[in-house]
User: What shape does this take?
Amino acid sequence: MYNPVDLNKKKAGALVIHCADPRFQAAYRSVTDGLRVYHDLLAVPGASKAVVDNLSIIDYIKLLASFHHFETIHILDHVDCGAFGPVDNELSEHAKMLAEATRKINRAMPKLKVIPHLLDERQELTVEV
Amino acid sequence: MAENNYREYHPVDLDNKQVDDLLVTCSDHRFQRAFEAVAQNRDLERADKIVFPAPAQNIANGVLIPTIEKLQSLHAFSTVSVYDHLYCGGTDYEGASAEEEMILIHQRKQVAAINAIHEVMPEMTVITYVVGVEEIVSATDSRILSYV
Assistant: This one.
C-alpha cells in the first residue's frame, strides 16, 4: 500500500511547525520539499502563535527532540491566518510572533536553531526576527 | 510587503475556506509518507490538518479537543480522520511490545478518542486507522464502530 517504513531511521533532519489551514497545505508542502530533509511535523492552528500561546507545546517539542534528535526547527506562518485574526500589517505581526516563538523555544532548548518563514498567496516572504 | 526569491508555489485561493474533513496524524518523520499515501487513497488531500504526537491518545485525554472544536467552527468539516501508527514514541503502550498488543492499545485509545469527540460534537463522523510498517493494521468507523 505504501513504501515500508524504516523504523531504524530515528534521526529527523528538522522539525517543521506549520498551521492547520487547508488552503496552505500545498504551499507548505512545496516549501518543506525544498528543505530536502526528513522532518518531524507539528501542524497546529497559528504555528508561531500556537508556540507562544500554548503552554504545553514546548513539552511536545522536547518530547519529539528527545526521540528524533533534530537540531533545527522551521516555523511556517501564513498570511490571512484565522488564529491571528485581522491584522494591520501581516509582515510585522508575524515577525513579532515568530520572534517570540523563537525566544520561547531557545529558552527551553538553547541548542536548537529556529528558522522563521512567512508564506503569502504566491511565495515565501522575507521575514526578519 | 517585502518579497524575495524564495520558493514560489501554485497560488493559494484565500476564499476557499470550507473543507469536509479534518485529518489528525502523528508527528513522527518516519511515517509522514505513509500517512500521505493513506490520505491520498481516501481523497483526503484537501483537509484541515492537525499533526501532533500520539493523536488518538491526545484526543482521548482532551489535549486536542479545543483545537478540533475551533477548527470545526472555522471550516465546518463533518468528518474527523485520526491516523495512529505502530511503534509510536508518544503513545503509552503500558509495557506492551508485541505488535498485536500495540494494535489493541491503539484501538482502545481510538474508541476513547471517538467518545471524546462525540461528547462535544455528537454528530461528527470519526474514522480511525492504525498505520503499520507496510499497511493499515486496524480501522474503526464511528458510524459502525467495528474493527477490520
Remarks:
- The domain at 16-125 of chain A is CATH 3.40.1050.10 (Beta-carbonic Anhydrase; Chain A).
- The mean pLDDT of chain A is 95.
